[in-house]
Input
Amino acid sequence: MDCSAVLRPMPGSPPRPAAPAGGTMVFCVNPPQMTPLLSHFGPRICRGKRLVGYWWWELDRVPRAWLAWAALMDEIWVSSRFIHDTFARALPGKPIRYVPLPVPEPIPSALTRVDFGLAADIFTVLAPFDLSSHWARKNPMGAIAAFRRAFPGATEAQLVLKVSGADQNPGQLEQLRGLTADMPDVRIVDRTLSAADLAALIRCADVLLSLHRSEGFGLFIAEAMWLGTAVVATGWSGVMDMLDADNALLVKFTKVPVKAADYPSVPPGAQWADPDIGHAADCLRRLASYPGLGTQLRAKARARAERQFSLDRFREVAADLLPAAAPRQE
Output
């Protein structure tokens, strides 16, 4: 059941759903969202049911506050092996299941580079990120530094920074503008785009650049694989379920501690990747210099997307798991 009206009530939202009477409940929300759900439905929603948390997370340590919620679940599903390993370390004895996330093929609109205010015939790098998903983790500064090093001439290439969450983080948007003030080859797109227009923007780029420090999954990368956009990405964390040396250029990195200033409430001992900016710049230059390399990567990535992201694959895996245990008795 769709619980959007409970978690994000808005004018015109559909009526709040009623709770099912029995069976298995798969909570596709993280523990912080469980409180408003149970406040609405009441704890009786869980009685006599098998409870599954389908959770997403992006660090290599689980927040302490999540452990109590995990104890309430019969098992936990996750969408990448990186998340699986993180939860398995934190929750010994708890069944943790890798259930690949279905990613439907995006349907792009007819918008072109010119419609986005971009030069039509120049090598184009797209770095999309959400400012609400932690500046240090998404690492836009790394993307800017790598592009600057790869293409010091202002007419060699263009960088598109697709920014979400700017309305909630205006200071960071201004910081981005300051970092790129001397770069006429950078375009910041901070307006909200429809799903079709966002897909068109991804399709318009020659390469999607993600110098993330950690990702639980990596939805933009999955969509780029569908849309025929080559990928240059930090070779670590959840993206490694879909990327390899045949379908992407993987950026070298060094593991470093996660600083509390970079990630609120960071779990003790957490580490993430510090991508090698020089290597990232080399990857971008290779793609710009050898168009055939991009063609090869795109073909391999598309084939991987067709195999890995299908709804049929998800249904097969989930169908095997759903009847695996009887409802808990209370």
